[in-house]
Amino acid sequence: MSxxxxxxxxxxxxxxxxxxxxxxxxxxxxxxxxxxxxVTSWRNDHGEELLFLSTKAIFKPPKAIRGGIPICFPxxxxxxxxxxxxxxxxxxxxxxxxxxPFPTVSTNKAFTDLIFKPSEEDLKIWPHSYEFxxxxxxxxxxxxxxxxxxxxxxxxxFSFTFAYHTYLSVSDISEVRIEGLETxxxxxxxxxxxxxxxxxxxxxFETEVDKIYLGTPTKIAIIDHEKKRTFVLRKDGLxxxxxxxxxxxAKSIADLGDDEYKHMLCVEPAAVEKAITLKPGxxxxxxxxxxxxxxxxxxxxLDPQRVLQG
Length: 310
Ligand code: TA6
Known about the structure:
It is a single chain. By secondary structure, the chain is mainly beta. It is built from two helices and 23 strands. A hairpin with a 4-residue loop joins strand 3 and strand 4. It is globular. 6-O-phosphono-beta-D-tagatofuranose is lined by residues 64, 77, 84-85, 165, 189, 210, 242, 244, 266, 268. Its EC number is 5.1.3.15.
């Protein structure tokens, strides 16, 4: 039909930056900025935004966009000598017109392929040659899928750490809990990265949290009691999961509103504890899949186990 919007559209976003809009026939959508290869929006078929984006986000290089899904590469956080979270999140990516095929053929139409290759300047900071390909897909049920493929095209091996720094939109951080990380070991960023074991049934929030959970399951549920919504996060190739909410520290983050911490929660599939090493010619793949489903009830209780086992 002539009035119908296309599944993939390239247009201008904030400050004239290029963005790709993905639309699925039932109404869900996503937006991806070429600046950072950064997903900034993911909406369900009711038009509800599912990712958090700060009202103070600065869409201007060299600052990374605050919210959505920044890509942390080739370094997560301060785990190395580079700037915090590496540099992929504040570089311009390109549309990848000829991506190598994936092993399984998908019938989805709402997807885009991006590519990031280091510039001469980047090679001075991190002297390794690679091609970083990122496919972003909206599935038929409105699921958001990100697949990163990093190929070593250098003559020597290199190692990197990585995260999808996913900012989820939540009704109220005090009403949220995470299932799937309980009893796991974590490194506490607020305690000089010391190692602890998580105690208790589930992760809830009443103060600042900045933890790297280790050896995490492939499926994690984030339950928003007030919204009666559960985010199901599936991941592959990414053994760790970072959980971050800055709480009162939001006041010291210039591009985050003082109270905005109440409406965001970062759950970040990551490879941090053990860096990924690629020999020349080798490729690494890391995948994130997000879906948002109505929370189910059993005996009046939200039942994340059914989500995790389903
Ligand atoms: O992933 C958690 C974290 O590493 C925190 O330590 C916190 O600093 C956050 O990322 C945000 O980092 P940014 O550089 O985007 O301000």
